[in-house]
């Protein structure tokens, strides 16, 4: 019987390439976090490789170019968040035959707020990345992200708000097309600027304890109740008359 030849030895000086999904996902998570922290334009392949403790060649093994890496961040990290936020809101177990459109809109707004805050809780990079690279003029991810926004869902939501407004259930001054932007402003902006407003209120222990749940509750209260409470019945005079 012929002897089995030994396996070919690896050339010295070349570390093995961990060709697996976990290594790629780790690099993608690292790049996403750095894009959020210091901006896409200021983050190079070399910076990411240095932070990961690998060579730029190793990063290029998984992502052939910087553009491919950026596309992967959008498609594999941001687009799933958009899908989660805009997934259909589940119906109640026994929907009413003729549901109140205002109640349905209120429930939808509440669900969207909770999904946005939940996404930011699970993915702390989301608020900063969205505000810096999508909202800001010249953001490096704007055009890449905009093509994945569900324009049909946005238009349907604005139509739902407008219908409620026609029935007097929503304040006349509200612009239906801006409601979703208001939701983003009341959720992602406070989350993205938490370090700033905590410094402003640094002597206030209550402000320091404001967490994501409180931000969600605040956004829902502002969107569904408004800043000012409706006027109550007039107070009785001191004489009781």
What topology emerges from the helices and strands here?
Layout: H1 21-38, H2 45-52, H3 56-62, H4 66-85, H5 101-122, H6 126-135, H7 142-146, H8 151-166, H9 179-192, H10 194-200, H11 205-208, H12 212-224
Quick structural summary:
By secondary structure, the chain is an all-alpha fold.
What is the fold-level CATH name, i.e. the topology of one domain? Tetracycline Repressor, domain 2
Beta-strand fraction estimate:
under 5%
User: Would you tell me the overall average pLDDT?
Assistant: 87
The CATH superfamily of one domain is Tetracycline Repressor, domain 2
Largest sheet: none
What is the count of β-strands? 0
Overview of the molecule:
It is a single chain. By secondary structure, this protein is mainly alpha-helical. It has a domain at 77-91 and 99-224: Tetracycline Repressor, domain 2. The protein is 60% helix and 0% strand. It contains 12 helices and no strands. The chain has helices at residues 21-38, 45-52, 56-62, 66-85, 101-122, 126-135, 142-146, 151-166, 179-192, 194-200, 205-208, 212-224. The termini are far apart. Residues 1-5 and 91-95 have low confidence and may be disordered.
């Amino acid at each position: 019987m012929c002897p089995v030849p030994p396996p070919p030895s690896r050339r010295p000086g070349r570390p093995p390439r961990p060709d697996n999904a976990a290594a790629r996902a780790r690099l993608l998570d690292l790049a996403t976090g750095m894009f959020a922290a210091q901006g896409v334009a200021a983050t190079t392949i070399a910076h990411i490789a240095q932070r990961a403790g690998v060579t730029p060649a190793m990063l290029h093994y998984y992502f052939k170019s910087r553009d491919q890496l950026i596309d992967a961040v959008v498609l594999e990290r941001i687009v799933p968040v958009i899908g989660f936020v805009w997934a259909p809101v589940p119906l109640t177990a026994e929907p009413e035959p003729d549901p109140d459109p205002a109640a349905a809109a209120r429930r939808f707004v509440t669900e969207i707020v909770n999904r946005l805050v939940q996404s930011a809780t699970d993915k702390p990079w989301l608020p900063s990345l969205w505000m810096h690279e999508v909202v800001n003029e010249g953001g490096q991810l704007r055009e890449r992200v905009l093509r994945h926004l569900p324009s049909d869902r946005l238009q349907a939501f604005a139509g739902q708000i407008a219908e409620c407004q026609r029935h007097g259930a929503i304040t006349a001054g509200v612009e239906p097309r801006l409601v979703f932007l208001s939701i983003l402003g009341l959720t992602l902006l406070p989350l993205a600027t938490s370090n700033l407003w905590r410094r402003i209120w640094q002597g206030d222990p209550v402000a320091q304890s404001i967490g994501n749940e409180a931000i969600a509750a605040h956004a829902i209260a502002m969107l569904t109740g408004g800043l000012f409470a409706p006027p109550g019945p007039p107070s009785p005079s001191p004489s009781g008359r």
